[in-house]
Design a protein that fits this description.
alpha+beta, eight-stranded antiparallel β-barrel, single chain, about 450 residues, Porin, 13 helices, 11 strands, elongated, three-stranded mixed beta sheet
């Protein structure tokens, strides 16, 4: 395995995130056994301490150094109820806590992401795995959650490939460095925590101050913050968001009590900070224009994740995928390929079920309409199929909630999302489709069942 030497290269994460209060939380806490944690805990702790002593302290001002020299860094095996994002600061006396289980979880996700990328596979399965942990119980998956690398079918020798090793190390080192510096920001400013008496506005301001300190430290040490989106995609698929609540009022009630929610507002603010500091980060790089473009690209990705967090429709699709996800569906697949729904059993032949059979209708793109034939095959809440129209053909995969099919369409190199609502008797469908992450900006889609 890699030696966990956390080299500060780039920015990945905005930390001190509180995980969703899920029924299966205790199972998440024990995703890694004690023996694994006893092995990795001391190694992670040494890496954190080495970074603090040898990389961070030399770049602090005299006043910052006086404030932070006595900070304790603790790496417990796990923090029950806060896995797999157990990163926080407490005090005084000021203590930064990063659990070994949370570090290991992200470490394994980095290896998986690097191996999938190096071998030309879709990166979606990594986020789908995280969503499965959020929405499915261990009992539904055979009694226990599969570990990251087992679930995603990453080979044991993945890190023997130098490409995989380099990418995984960069992702991991960048994230852990930013986590550490962000938490040190809380200690530096002596933030009073998030208990009674601390308003949500004050909590958000404290998080923003810690973020700005972390960004400033990245600039001081000459690190280019360009790898952030991967962490936030994973976090957005696990932490509670607007799509987990029945109404905007219920969501706002959650935000009023949550200490560190991952919100669209928070990510937009971080993305804007990156945009505003892109020139300062890029000025010391060999190719200033290329560096600036990478930083602005990262900011754009963060804005996109923020849009997902703020779109209940997209979040509903993510939730439906999570509730129906199985380990078999996480097998590596090429970009554009659909998950292996058939691995869970044969598709139903029930012609009377909604979203099952052949539908003939039309779709529009906002300027014109074309005849459309849609063939759907349903298995429980899972649906897959094909569609055909005058200009081409594509595939569709989705999940049913009540009488609504939330789907993803794939056509050539393009893809997007949408929804179809079934008539009460299942005889017709009517809905919309969208580009990118939108579910409705493309046009309409309808059909009547013919067989």
């Amino acid at each position: 395995m890699r030696s966990p030497l956390f080299r500060p290269i780039a920015l990945v994460a905005l930390l001190t995130l509180a995980p969703a209060a899920l029924a299966q939380q205790s199972a998440i806490d024990t995703l890694y056994d004690d023996q694994t944690m006893q092995y990795w805990g001391p190694r992670y702790e040494k890496g954190l301490r080495d970074n603090f002593d040898n990389v961070i302290l030399p770049y602090l001002s005299e006043a910052e150094r006086r404030q932070l020299t006595g900070v304790r860094i603790e790496v417990p095996s796990r923090v029950p109820g806060q896995e797999p994002f157990a990163f926080f600061t407490s005090g005084p006396p000021w203590t930064v806590t990063l659990s070994a289980a949370s570090i290991k979880f992200f470490d394994d996700l980095c290896v998986a992401q690097a191996w999938l990328n190096a071998n030309g596979y879709s990166l979606e399965t990594a986020s789908e795995y995280v969503t499965m942990l959020k929405y499915r119980t261990p009992e539904a998956l055979g009694g226990a959650y599969p570990a990251v690398l087992d679930a995603l079918q990453i080979p044991a020798d993945a890190l023997d490939d130098q490409r995989v090793y380099n990418t995984a190390t960069r992702l991991f080192d960048e994230a852990i460095f930013f986590i550490l510096v962000h938490e040190l920001g809380h200690a530096l400013y002596e933030h009073p925590g998030y208990g009674p008496g601390i308003t949500r506005a004050e909590a958000r301001a404290n998080e923003s101050a810690a973020d700005e300190f972390a960004l400033d430290m990245m600039r001081r040490v000459g690190a280019e913050p360009t790898s952030m989106a991967f962490f936030f995609v994973a976090a957005a698929h696990y932490l509670q968001g607007r799509g987990d609540f029945a109404s905007e009022a219920a969501y706002q009630g959650f935000l009023a009590d949550a200490t560190h929610p991952l919100t669209a507002e928070r990510l937009h603010a971080l993305a804007s900070s990156l945009e505003g500091s892109a020139d300062r980060f890029a000025q010391d790089e060999g190719d200033v224009a290329a560096s600036r473009a990478r930083i602005l690209g990262t900011a754009a990705q963060l804005h996109q994740v923020a849009e997902i967090l703020g779109d209940p429709g997209v979040q509903a699709l993510i939730a439906q995928k999570g509730r129906s996800m199985t380990p078999q569906m996480l097998a590596p697949r090429r970009p554009g390929e659909l998950p292996n729904l058939a691995a869970s059993g044969p598709l139903d032949d029930g012609a009377g079920a909604p979203f099952q059979g052949t539908y003939v209708g039309e779709f529009s793109d906002g300027t014109a309409s074309l005849p459309m034939k849609t063939v759907l095959r349903r298995q429980g809440d899972q649906v897959m199929g094909e569609y055909y129209y005058g200009g081409g053909a594509g595939r569709i995969v989705g999940l049913v909630q009540d009488r609504v099919l939330y789907y993803q369409w794939l056509e050539g190199g393009a893809s997007g999302y949408g929804y179809l609502i079934a008539a009460e008797d299942g005889s017709s469908l009517d809905g919309r489709w969208g580009h990118g992450e939108s579910m409705d900006d493309g046009g309409t889609w309808n059909g009547a069942k013919t067989e």
